[in-house]
User: Fold these one by one.
Assistant:
Number 1:
Amino acid sequence: MVVATFVLWHKRFGDAQCLDDTIPFVSNTYQYMTNQKRFLERATDALKNNNIIKFYLGPMTVYMVAGTRNVQAMFRQSDNLSSEIMMVHLVLPRVYGLTKAEVARWERDKTGRLETPAPGTESHPKDQRYFFTLEHIYSQYLKPKRHANLLMETYFRSFSQKLDMLPIGTWVDVNMFDLCKRDMTQSAMTALIGPSIFELNPDFIDTFWEFDSIIVFLFTGLPSWLNPRPRRVQQRYFSMVRKYLDYAWANFDRNGPTATADWEPYFGARVARELNMWFRDTGLCEQSAAGFLGTLLFAENGNSVPIATWGMMEIIRDPSLFEAVREEVIQASTADPVTGARVIDAQKLISSPLLQSVYTEILRLHMSFNPTRQVTKPFKMDGYTLKKGAMVQAPMHVAHYDEAVWSVDGHSASQFWAERHVKYIETKDQSGKSIRKPEFAMAGRPSSYFPYGGGTSLCAGRNFAKGEIIMTLGLLVSKFDIEFVAWTQLDGSPSDRAAQNDGRWAGAAAMPPDREMKLRWKRLW
Ligand code: HEM
């Protein structure tokens, strides 16, 4: 009764409840920047009693929201919330490394991402509508199924070729996470930007994963004198991308027949080429173009690779799941009667119920990103007035682990359960015999599941990512007999437990496994 009266009083008079802050304005800020995992645990507890809480990040007010209506409101297109301001103030200068003058050009663009400029901005020059043009290139050349499928095919060809170099019938020791980090990443990058970046920079993959490990620090904006490593790694990584761009421009013929090809070796897929041509035409300096492209490579691999690794780890540790997944691959493929080599029907595999369920589970449990918007006009959410200038975040971790939404039949929300999203339908086969047919059906509310974010900044690569992840799982499970050997620390030393989410990535991206899985495998075809 007392709590209810307190909540009603707060709603009636305005502001959301504050998250405890031992030293006001300092403790929460420090924990948010240095231990996001613990911060999110505290926020999750607080959000159990209230669908909106408030805290301060330095001088900035931040609202964290949960619950169907609030999450939907946050992703809805509206004049009250913007994702562009954050991009201008945090992402472009800190992560992409754009110069001040370039950031200022993006800042002047208030027209939004939609085709029709935001009201009152109609006179802004069309060739300076940067957010819209970026969105337009993704909408034309990355999001559509046709382009996502082309990327997936190139990825799959390259990844298969790497596996085909292993001898047939011989047991080989493998570290699962390490293999995905190397071979998936190289194949996905080749599909997106072509192969030359690896020829020009032999240690590009290692540098990329080093960049992946410091990107959170770039976001938080800790000054370089306090922590110089992130900036150093960023510069080293972007100069490798820059070297690649210089080479690609020196060899690519913009007026030649490959300028509009689906894929060519210098710039790779059409989306990467269109982006690079636009960077050049719009006067973005070479180092900033490298920042853009380097960050796109992070978007492409920083989530897909750890997520696919989790998928393999779950499948390998459960032999009956391994067999069931292999059976689905057999159903979705044809085999050469002599060599046993399989031709997998990608579209059929991607719509297989069990694999889709596994894919949904691993994204639910391991993706942890806080989609963020900034309040441009005060407005009401869940009875509270959100102040202009404040940030609003919907931490997906809170929604994805909500027991009330995801817990079923004794399988708690925090547990991986491969069949959580499979429903069995009673039907009849051709002979009229009753059969139970599995179908994919999301077990919880869609508004409690948003691994790809939502609204206008919904992940542009999600169609490619889904195909890439499911095809990787299907290929590995059908191509190899696999035996689990041991869990180890990431440096190879023994571990007394299985992998868990590495909390250093909490709130920022997919949380990778904090342990390696050692295994033996034997190629079958
Ligand atoms: C498991 C895989 C992936 C996950 C979970 C994922 C998730 C996300 C999330 C959460 C966002 C931010 C959305 C927001 O701010 O509301 C995002 C943005 C983005 N992602 Fe992905 N992503 C994945 C794979 C990919 C791939 C393979 C690509 C391909 C290049 C890609 C390209 C992008 C781009 C370009 C954006 C920026 C979109 C924009 O601001 O308009 N992502 N992704």
Number 2:
Amino acid sequence: MNSAASVRKLTVRHRRTTALDAVDLAFGTGVHGLLGPNGAGKTSLIRVLATVAPPTSGRVELLGGDVSAPAHRTAVRRRLGYLPQEFGYYPGFTVREFVAYVAWLKEMPRAAASAAVEGAVARVGLTDRIDAKIRTLSGGMVRRVGIAQAIVNDPDLLLLDEPTAGLDPEQRVDFRALLRELGRDATVIVSTHLVEDVAAACTEVTLIGAGRVAYRGTPHALAALGEEAGAEDFGDNPIERGYAVALRRHRSGAAPTTSGWSVTR
Ligand SMILES: Nc1ncnc2c1ncn2[C@@H]1O[C@H](COP(=O)(O)OP(=O)(O)OP(=O)(O)O)[C@@H](O)[C@H]1O
């Protein structure tokens, strides 16, 4: 299977902290949930995949080529979408102006851009606020503007760092439906702390623990792990319990648990 994104022996260090430690991973078409405790390395991975942070060492291949080559990196940036954990925007821009600005940064043809902007804003349910200044929107609406700018170019690789933070329950449900739709054709990687996001929208889960892959498998298989004997006290639902079991095994030094899917494809 061709992977839109793969990393081999990826190490990321921030001064003396090793955020990712020689990680091998590959992601193909579908929705991939990235789970892990605070500080596990999820954002560090997403930033490398978004080409905003260089790896300390290791190989990163995106959309068919090595991104250490500047020309390929530029080509990749036009075809990816990225919502950072802390998303910077211009509060004086309207929603339309801001999403159009990102379309321009991605060098989208001018003729296609204005319909793409309206389409992306409609997909996040903000059509009625498209000409409102971003500073007048609620926090959840601003998050939705962030999702709109990430999908305006119909990306082949979509990277979303905690996209559901700040969304109300109804918006989260709509957003998960959007994720499923996007994951039919694109490779979507979503970091989240909400196991409901994973259960409802993801085709595959990657659990990162202290800079390494602790688990890889389907949400169903992770839930099955949580049904095993002894896991009753670890969480409120099977996926939460599976998450706890996989992390404990990982911390005790076991090799990554995988079920059905291999760690590197
Ligand atoms: N700019 C930085 N300078 C120093 N250390 C950093 C920096 N960015 C991240 N780290 C450290 O690297 C490790 C991984 O952080 P990262 O943000 O990738 O984790 P995360 O899984 O995204 O966490 P969270 O769930 O809290 O967002 C942590 O120990 C963090 O403190």
